[in-house]
Specification:
- This is Photosystem II stability/assembly factor-like uncharacterized protein.
- The chain has 376 residues and is of the alpha+beta class.
- Among the domains are: 56 residues; 96 residues, Neuraminidase (6 Propeller).
- Helix content is 19%, strand content 35%.
- The strands form 7 sheets. A 4-stranded antiparallel sheet has the order 1-2-3-4, with no helix packed on it. A 4-stranded antiparallel sheet has the order 5-6-7-8.
- Strand 2 and strand 3 form a beta hairpin.
- Helix 1 packs parallel to helix 4.
- The longest helix has 27 residues.
- It is globular and about 70 Å long.
């Protein structure tokens, strides 16, 4: 019933905006503007492979650098807000973004191709919903009794609202952001986004399929982050405390017993194989059994924690609102809190060298010198 209410509200919203939708959607297809001070724009995601670092953010901005060289802005075929970056190998990089955009580089970030956009995603979603609708109709016809038929009819009623919303959105245009992308090998990958969107590819991103039905997520909570461990398990980290785990390369997912009902924004595995999740109001939890159980940690903050990294010495560092940085000792799990001088919301952090850190957030690309870590 909750999903019906959500879909009804979405239908009303879509209808109100449909009359205002134009024929063009420039933000998806317009190249990212080149800027002399691109580093000062809003940045959301960052990652590193060997000595190359990548940062992504507003207006389709992608910055890369090798070692201690200066940042270089790439030419990017979209102006949407970019949200995360994932290295498949030294040359292949994937970037997720708003309005259903996925980008790929096969030359270490020198050039970029748009592999998925919101219009393509709308078509994929409508076909997926229509296929599910046809399946439910068949199951109703083949039901063994009235109770079984009634159950399928209820699911069909809920699904009909989603189909109507998808049909209306064809006129409105793309709106769904993708928040993260993860590849298990060069051909097989996943992307996650708003309203429970889970995408999968088996051909290196040339085509994508919606597989959201693999998650026990009937109210379509936002899926915020993808994480994997050395064993190849895949984790989906979501809002409303939802956590999902796959031990079969994403063919199926198990809903974990969550330690918290508020939203999680990120997660990572430390050097000891422990699974960390963090998010709303400074909540941090760690699992020593691959997500079966969790223990709460004190972060010494109530600010949202949005991104994290693992330092070379095993220290876990989390970054969040108001310039907050929290360092967790790998042995005691005790936290030390610091604040970046900008006091702006931070979305990501990476150790650069020694006590130097790269931060991204509302203030762009920033540096932080930790008083806790010995200088190189």
């Amino acid at each position: 019933m909750k999903w019906i209410a959500i879909c009804t509200a979405l239908l009303a919203s879509f209808s109100a905006h449909a009359q205002q939708a134009g024929d063009d959607y420039d933000v998806i297809f317009a190249p990212s503007p080149q800027a002399q001070r691109a580093q000062q724009g809003v940045m959301v995601g960052l990652n590193r492979y060997l000595d190359q670092t990548i940062v992504v953010g507003a207006f389709g901005t992608i910055l890369t650098k090798q070692g201690e060289q200066d940042w270089q802005q790439a030419e990017v075929p979209t102006s949407v807000l970019l949200t995360s970056a994932h290295y498949v190998d030294a040359n292949t990089i994937w970037v997720s973004g708003h309005d259903g955009v996925l980008l790929r580089s096969q030359d270490a970030g020198a050039s970029w191709q748009r592999m998925l956009d919101g219009f393509q995603l709308l078509n994929i979603e409508l076909e997926w919903l229509q296929e599910r609708e046809a399946t439910l109709l068949t199951r109703i016809e083949d039901a063994e009794d009235d109770d079984e038929a009634a159950e399928y009819e209820f699911l069909l009623d809920e699904l009909s609202f989603q189909v109507q919303a998808a049909e209306i959105q064809q006129d409105v245009g793309p709106t769904k952001p993708l928040f993260d992308v993860l590849f298990t090998d060069a051909e097989h990958g996943f992307a996650v986004g708003a309203f429970g969107m889970l995408l999968e590819t088996h051909d290196g991103g040339s085509s994508w399929a919606i597989v959201s039905e693999r998650l026990d997520n009937p109210t379509a909570f936002h899926l915020n982050k993808l994480v994997s461990n050395d064993a190849g398990d895949i984790f989906v980290i979501a809002e409303a405390g939802q956590l999902f785990r796959s031990d079969d390369n994403g063919a199926s997912f198990e809903l974990l017993d969550s330690p918290y009902q508020g939203s999680f924004f990120g997660g990572l595995f430390d050097q000891q194989g422990r699974f960390w999740v963090y998010g709303l109001r400074g909540n941090v939890f760690v699992s020593e059994d691959n997500g079966d159980t969790f223990s709460a940690l004190s972060s010494n903050t109530r600010y949202n924690l949005n991104g994290g990294t693992l330092m070379a010495d095993g220290t876990v560092v989390l970054a969040g609102h108001s310039g907050t940085l929290v360092f967790f000792d790998q042995d005691t799990l005790e936290a030390q809190r610091f604040e970046h001088s900008s006091n702006v919301p931070l979305s990501g952090v990476l150790q650069d060298a020694g006590s130097e850190f790269i931060l991204v957030g509302r203030g762009g690309v920033m540096q932080f010198l930790s008083p806790q870590v010995p200088a190189r």
